[in-house]
Design brief:
The structure is a single chain. It is elongated and about 60 Å long. A five-stranded parallel sheet has the order 2-1-3-4-5, with helices on both faces. A five-stranded antiparallel sheet has the order 10-9-8-12-11. Strands 13-14-15 form a three-stranded antiparallel sheet, with no helix packed on it. The relative contact order is 0.09. By secondary structure, the protein is of the alpha/beta class. It is built from seven helices and 15 strands.
Amino acid sequence: MMRCLILDDEPLSLEVLEDNIKRTGLFEVAERCSAPAQAMLALQHEQIDLLFCDIQMPGINGLQLVRSLKNGPPVIFITAYQEFALQGYELDVIDYLLKPVEIERFLQACQKAVRHIERGQRRHQRDYFFLHVDYTLVKVPFNDIIYIEGLKDYVKVYLDSQSKPLLSRITFKALEEQLPGERFFRVHKSYIVNIDQVQSIRKGRIKTVQAEIPCSDNYKEIVGQMTGRC
């Protein structure tokens, strides 16, 4: 059964949420947290498939928590405040539920999350994906990718097997979702790099077998993720 973490600073809300999750039969509550710091620690040490998250909490709120997570689990926000909905969906969450949540609506959100997670699991079992290039579907092995450059509605995929990159009309975000997060890291707003193709890292620059690409301002955080130090 898939494992979830629930986060809410109100004890009664935690009880209701856990009861609703049990009624769906889709998830096991692996962790229940009453503070964002507690949830962040649990996410570092537990295998969590889905995060149910409140928004208005003391200190770090739910929006700030989710923004801070790199390669974190899918998220369902559950809150009493409708005004945060746009910000929530901008974080590409699975769903945004308003308290009190009817069980039918809650089940719908959970089923959507299961479909999302299962798609990701199937994708990560493969070692390739298909990319539209010049009206043709091209099979691209993950281990052949050096880095990817985003250009508005297009991407350039640089491969180890050829000198000319593949150009495809797809958004950077849509392509990023097809890549296994443990191997590919977004190091800049316009660049994703395959960690297996990195030769060296120097502040502000990442050297691959073909080129040097820029690294964003949160350099230390990105390097920590890539090298397994955070």
